[in-house]
Amino acid sequence: MFAATVSSGVIVLVGAVFLACAVEMVEALTIVFAVGHTRGWRSAFEGVVAAIVALVALVAAFGPALIHVPLSTLRLIVGGVLLIFGMQWLRKAVLRSSGLKAKHDEDAIYEETVAELRASGQTVGRDRLAFVMAFKGVFLEGLEVVITVLTLGTSAHRLGLAATTAGIALVLVAITGAIVSKQLSSVPENAMKMSVGILLVSYGTFWVGEGTQGNVAGERRLSSFLCSHVHAGDMGTCWPR
C-alpha cells in the first residue's frame, strides 16, 4: 500500500511538472524563434542562456530555504500558491474551450513578435533588443515553471526529481523545435493547460487541507481522491473532516 501510494504520488508530480514546463517552454520557443529569425541567433541564444541561468539560480536559492519552513506553514503556502496558479490555468483553459476567449495561437504570436522586431529597425553589433526579448520570453514563461517545481518538489520532498523532470521537458521541447525549425503551433496547449490546472488545483486543495487540519493517513487518501474528482467536475467535498 505504501509503495503504491509513493508510486502514484511520483507519477502525479512528474506529470504535473512535465506538462507545465512543456507548455511554458513551447510559448517561450515561439518568441526565441521570432527573435532568431528576425534579428539573428547570437543575441537570441545569449538571452536564452541568461534566462536559464537566472531560473536555475532561483531554484538553488529558494529551494533549500523552503526546507526549513515549518511543515504546516509550508503546506499552507504551497497549497495557496498551487491553488492560485491552478485556478488561473484552469479558468483560461475553460474559457478557451468554450469559445469565450481566443485560443493561444503560436503562429499569430510569432507574426506579432516579428512585426514588433522589424518595426524597431536593425542595429550594428550586439543586438540589445533581441537579447532582452529572448531573455524576457524565456524568463517569464520559465518563472511559472520554477514556482511549480519549488512548490510541488518541496511539498513532496522530491525537489531533485521535480527539477530533473523540468529539465527533461525543456530539452525535449528544444530538440523538437530545433528539428522542425519553427514554432510548435500544433501542440495541444489548451488541453495540456487544462490537465495541469486540474492537477495543480487538486494538489493545492489537498495541501491547504493538510496544513489547516493536520495529517491523518486515512483522510489524506480520501481527500486526495475526492479532490481529483471534484475539480474534474464531479460532486463532493475536498476537505478532510
Strand content: under 5%
Task: Please mark out the parts with pLDDT under 50 across 5 or more consecutive residues, or reply none.
Answer: 1-5, 215-219, 232-241
Give the termini separation.
22 Å
Order of helices and strands: HHHHHHHH
Binned, the helix content reads: over 70%
Major sheet summary line? none
Number of helices: 8
Number of strands: 0
Structural class: mainly alpha
Characterize the structure shown:
With 241 residues, the chain is mainly α. The protein has one domain (2-83, 102-188). The chain has 8 helices and no strands. The protein has helices spanning 2-39, 41-67, 71-98, 106-119, 128-155, 159-180, 189-213, 217-230. The protein is globular and about 60 Å long.
Question: What is the element layout, followed by pairings?
Answer:
Elements: H1 2-39, H2 41-67, H3 71-98, H4 106-119, H5 128-155, H6 159-180, H7 189-213, H8 217-230
Helix pairs in contact: 1-2, 1-4, 1-5, 1-6, 1-7, 2-5, 3-5, 3-7, 5-6, 7-8
Task: Jot down its keywords.
single chain, 241 residues, mainly alpha, 8 helices, disordered N terminus, disordered C terminus
Structure at a glance:
The protein has 241 residues and is an all-alpha fold.
